[in-house]
């Protein structure tokens, strides 16, 4: 085929595609707060939440972050967001379960973190709430899933929420508007590359 | 089982898990720049890149972003990162293929964007280079994959690169250190929810 013919065929295809896309955009009229869930075993669940957080703050939205497992303040992302905005950021975990080795302490930390989360889920002046690594609280039975889902459902109608963590329970996926499963294809760590500042924390 | 027995069993399991995790961390000694690829049809590929970008900047790293498809400056994330850092940010695309409907114009834009990317890939003072939506340049044949892989391989040894976009070619996945496939479980847009500022742009 000549280049002119290729160009013409491309243009024809793209005109048809544009009609389909434009119709889909026209059909998507609802405006409301959405519940995003980033789950799966791959890298990117929390990072994607923080990327949306940057986008939201750049659009003038207000936001709050509650971290359910991490117990160390001063990560790169927290430092950056605090420098650049008046974000509410709460590091409320006790660290990985294999570090604490204490089921009751982990559960108590999760309950306290949820109380903090509920403050924001009841506050219509907060446009986006990030609940980082929340799913582990359900996986390990630290929090009651039904009660948490009820709090999420009762939040202000325009408020967005992002939940991250492996193994999101089915009821949470059912309640969500957008769900991404981040699957591990390969990871540098498995090839012997250390976790490095800026990339992993 | 009594609560005490449960607690003891939990502690025992977690002690063994900690030993495994600690060994893995001890084995991962290599320190070098990594190539991350975020691909798949789900939401989160670019967001995750921008989340790592926030983390990197928070750790004092320097960074540059080249966007290969987007043609509109002033997105939420660009606004936020510009406000908060001295980041280099280049919006160099011509928009979606079905908007331009012009194959040659799309290809020329991609070649120009790659020339900009190469400047950073040759500059050891840039710690992280984000090549957003680069994969489409290979999918549509705008760029030569082998030449691009050679440029990536020749970059400074401590420089990190993140490539995003659907349908990453196998040779790029082979060259990468960490690859996440972001799979679409569900998306609010398909349920009729409009793209909203802060969430989608």
Automatic annotation (TrEMBL), chains A, B:
This is Corrinoid adenosyltransferase. GO terms for biological process: cobalamin biosynthetic process; porphyrin-containing compound biosynthetic process. Belongs to the Cob(I)alamin adenosyltransferase family. It catalyses: 2 cob(II)alamin + reduced [electron-transfer flavoprotein] + 2 ATP = 2 adenosylcob(III)alamin + 2 triphosphate + oxidized [electron-transfer flavoprotein] + 3 H(+); 2 cob(II)yrinate a,c diamide + reduced [electron-transfer flavoprotein] + 2 ATP = 2 adenosylcob(III)yrinate a,c-diamide + 2 triphosphate + oxidized [electron-transfer flavoprotein] + 3 H(+). It comes from the Bacteria. SUPFAM superfamilies: P-loop containing nucleoside triphosphate hydrolases. It is found in: Cytoplasm. Keywords: ATP-binding, Cobalamin biosynthesis, Cytoplasm, Nucleotide-binding, Porphyrin biosynthesis, Transferase. InterPro entries: CblAdoTrfase_CobA, Co_AT_N_dom, P-loop_NTPase. GO terms for molecular function: ATP binding; corrinoid adenosyltransferase activity. Its EC number is 2.5.1.17. Residues 1-25 form the Cob(I)alamin adenosyltransferase N-terminal domain. Required for both de novo synthesis of the corrin ring for the assimilation of exogenous corrinoids. Participates in the adenosylation of a variety of incomplete and complete corrinoids. One of its GO terms (cellular component) is cytoplasm. Pathway: Cofactor biosynthesis; adenosylcobalamin biosynthesis; adenosylcobalamin from cob(II)yrinate a,c-diamide: step 2/7. Signal peptide: none annotated. CDD domains: CobA_ACA.
